[in-house]
Amino acid sequence: MKQTKALYFLSLFFVLGVLLISGCGGSPRGGVTSGSTVTLVSLALTPANPSLALGLSRQFSAIGTYSDGTTADLSSTVTWVSTNTSVATVGTSGLAASVAIGITTITASSGATSGSATLTVTPAALVSIAVSPANPGTTMGVAAQLAATGSYTDNTTRDITASVAWFSADISTALVGNGSGVSGQVTPWSAGTVALSAHLNGITGSTNFTVAAAPVGGGNPVVTTTHTTTTSSTAQTLTVSAGTPTLVEDRTYYDSTVAIAVAPAHGTATVTGQVVSYTPAPGFTGTDTLTLQEVTLSGSIAVIQIGDVVLGHNVNVNTNTNANTVTITVAPALAKSHTGLER
Known about the structure:
The chain has one helix at 2-23, and strands at 40-46, 51-53, 57-59, 61-66, 71-73, 79-82, 88-90, 95-98, 102-110, 113-122, 126-132, 137-139, 144-145, 147-152, 157-159, 165-168, 174-176, 185-188, 192-200, 203-212, 227-231, 236-239, 245-248, 251-254, 257-262, 267-272, 275-280, 286-295, 309-310, 313-314, 323-331. It is mainly β. It has three domains: 41-122, Sandwich (Immunoglobulin-like); 126-212, Sandwich (Immunoglobulin-like), CATH 2.60.40.1080; 227-331, Immunoglobulin-like, CATH 2.60.40. It has a four-stranded mixed β-sheet with strand order 2-10-9-6, with no helix packed on it. Strands 12-20-19-16 form a four-stranded mixed β-sheet, with no helix packed on it. A hairpin with a 2-residue loop joins strand 19 and strand 20. It is rod-shaped. It starts with a helix and ends in a 12-residue tail after the last strand.
């Protein structure tokens, strides 16, 4: 009898074990019983509705939510689509690449379930600023010009000299201009080296600028000769050499010129460019003098300041008040010859 009961209970435990095993429906998301299946309920894209500067890319992720409340990253298994590929494209892994300024919708789908985000492509953003020329510098009193070039996210470059804010680390050495017509223009104040920088949209470019001491005295001669001869009533020209010649486009300009400081007592003298013309008074013979003075471009006889500007170009000039007196010997005119027999 006891053996029969033991076999009965053993059989009962076996049946219960089988029922328990068959009743446990295995689920990858934990414990959905009674044979129910886990289904994808929704897809959410991150980031949600981002902006992207032209030339850049943005990675999207597709997060799936299931009927059992669990979530999973499905970025590599969903199908990605951009509704406006002229604005941005999207790859199989959800990487969106900008094409042009505008708006597009990025969609991820898995079966009948989908999610989307709005992507806005904005104008290219400034990445870096380069200040040129390289290793810039000038001489005391001579203005210089800097330029700022911006590099952007779309791999383009632009001249942003007039758009940046210019700064000098030491305005006692050099000051750099801001504003219409003077942006990037450097005015030196003392010899030395100073950091000059350009700033825009949180981006900075800089360079070290060197100011050299001004030359002392000397300079170019006003005239190439201090004595010349001519004959009565005959004009004589003199070559002058004032200032430093500078080639601007297809013409040569000088940073200073010459004026008649002391007019001749027995004739007239005029200056045209780098040539002085002297004409003795009718019938005069003997010695005459005139004094030539190096002057500023405005014609004032004074110390020539370094940094005179010719047609917007900064050129070096002399710091001197060069003057030369020219002595002119006027000889009698040659007698005319006669031919024929005298009576």
